[in-house]
Amino acid sequence: MKQTLTASDFFSAKLAFETDCADVYTDIMKKRCDYVLLDVRSTEAFQKSHAITAKNLPTSEINAETLANYAYDTKFVVYCWGPGCNGATKAALRLSDLGYRAKEMIGGIHYWEDLERYPVNRRNVAIQQ
């Protein structure tokens, strides 16, 4: 028997796995982040600019060893370059496969910095290993 996915089911599921720049920025400003904001671009790109409070762990380096300091109930919100980049999707999948909860920040650094004009840092804040 074929089950029909309702619009409500679809959009509820979508919101469970993604967020946007405005929601993340609001969480940061209201000090209600219950997640680690993770920039999954290269270290070089991260050093040029990244969202405030973000830590850096390139997608290719996400593994049990690099995440050893994080409890399995840690939530991550990941982002990469923007809508044309699937690095954040790959990172969220890796995190999920390792047992962590992950959401993708749609729009990436492009929406954060260039469109929304939210503040960025221009220094290296690597993930603690």
Short description:
This protein has helices at residues 7-17, 21-29, 43-48, 87-97, 108-115; strands at 18-20, 36-39, 50-51, 55-56, 75-79, 101-106, 120-121. By secondary structure, it is α/β, with parallel strands linked by helices.
Overview of this protein structure:
By secondary structure, the protein is an alpha/beta fold. It has a single domain (17-121), classed as Oxidized Rhodanese, domain 1 (3-Layer(aba) Sandwich), CATH 3.40.250. It is built from five helices and seven strands. The protein has helices at residues 7-17, 21-29, 43-48, 87-97, 108-115, and strands spanning 18-20, 36-39, 50-51, 55-56, 75-79, 101-106, 120-121. The chain has a five-stranded parallel β-sheet. Strand 5 (75-79), helix 4 (87-97) and strand 6 form a beta-alpha-beta unit. The chain is globular, with a radius of gyration of 15 Å. The model has no long low-confidence stretch (mean pLDDT 94).
